[in-house]
Amino acid sequence: MTALPGVPLSHLLDEVGSTLLTFAGSSAHDPLVTGIAIHDPAEPGSAAHPPGALVLGVGVADAEQATALLAALGRAGAAGLVLRAQVPAGLDDAVAASGVPVLVAAAVPWSQLVLLLRAVIDPARAGARPPGRPLGDLFALSNTVAAALGGAVTIEDRASRVLAFSGNQAVADAARVATVLGRQVPAEWRDRLTAAGVFDRLYSSGEPIDVVLPVPGLHPRAAVAVRAGEEILGSIWATTDGPLDADRSRTLVSAARTAALHILEERAVESAGRRRRAELTARLLDGEPGDPAAETAADTARRLGLPEGPFVVAAARLDGGPDLAADRQAGLQRTADALGMHLATVSPGAVTTVLDDTAYAVLALPPGTLRVPGAVRRTLHRLADRRDPPIAIGVSRPVGRPARLAVARADADAVLAVPPDRGRVADVTDVWAQVVLAQVPVPARLRDYFRTGPLAEVARYDAEHHTPLLESLRTYLESFGDVVGAATRLHVHPNTLRYRLRRIRELTGLDLDDPDARLAVGLQLRLTATTAEPPPDDPHEE
């Protein structure tokens, strides 16, 4: 067995899917799977397995063999045992004693199962497939089926998108040609098939079905569902000269099983690749600002395929939404995926990740760019407007090199800490003043002073008499002493505001004509967000 980087067993099951592997008996811990091993009782020497191995129990057919194997795997520190669908009864005690989880595999060849599991365990496997050639083996499969059936073949996913097609489409009809050219079954044909009940028959049958629609020039078809357990992955369609005989039906059923394995493999490979890219992106964003290891950051950026820069970071957080941590994490991951999809149109190669309670995207800008381009801002606004639950997005200043991306992340986080009043998306230039004030440190002793003095008295008076003096003072200062402008914002007569300001002076002795007094109370209002709650009698009381 070759040692691989390893993933938790629970994560491996999430990636592969419950249709392929399920728990039959599990232990309390979540072991790290570092490799795949084969155990075949008929093969001498196959019982020695290193720690962390997920062992495929080839040929394990009865409870006695399974119990003995579990005991040996427990002593070896194996991560789990995979058995076929017919699990011997009475293994609960053996699982508990060994601490080795038992999993049940769907009816797929062991060799294919090894391939799928390795693709998840070893992220480097995700890069083995040449770019731009997803599901390449499906094209060979479609040509093989077409040769056996004598018709044109397409392999489609559940949404009727074309994954592969045979090379003899010249024998196809107009509907098939439109499907292949558009890589999608046209909406009008999908509606016809749905109305005729074809998809209902297709997905409820384990055998090929004949499809004949009363449309001139439309060839008869045979179709079979592509399944992994109970999950529908897609379908195979072939034009025919009439109903299939038994041999051709078996060919189509066998092809569906093979197609399912290719699709599952691609799903695992893509998932592993996506996870690896997210880990590399997180590494860039997690660096210490000013980290001298610029070469390391640059190397990580090259591995992600990012250009030289400049870069910006967009940070998105859920505004409300689910309370459960797992549901929020799922929502953040969907947000990260949406960020990547939308930004790809304005910044090809944008990468995303989730850190803590925030989804991040790193995107490259055209050389020499000093501000976030309008196309990026418009794209983010469209995304924010469409999300449910809503999201808020903060965008950093551009930074020139990968080593500065941690600084850009801090920028984006700072913007999110002071959401703008005029929308759900802002960059640093939109909320510059608020960001600066939020970064001003206020020593604890100075905060004690802020909890006393004139504003504390005004806050206490407002709380006791239900008056708006503090709000009036804040608006007056924000209006630079313009009584008329402040009164308009407060929706009161200027004389009413003048009365409130005199009342504040009578209560506290605060002289708003004194520039030092105006500065002090302005800082107090800005930096401590004074509320209408009265402060404690003792300013040093905790």
UniProtKB/TrEMBL annotation:
Residues 469-527 form the PucR C-terminal helix-turn-helix domain. InterPro entries: CdaR-like_regulators, PucR_C-HTH_dom, PucR_C-HTH_sf. Pfam families: HTH_30. Gene3D superfamilies: PucR C-terminal helix-turn-helix domain (1.10.10.2840). It comes from the Bacteria. This is Helix-turn-helix domain-containing protein.
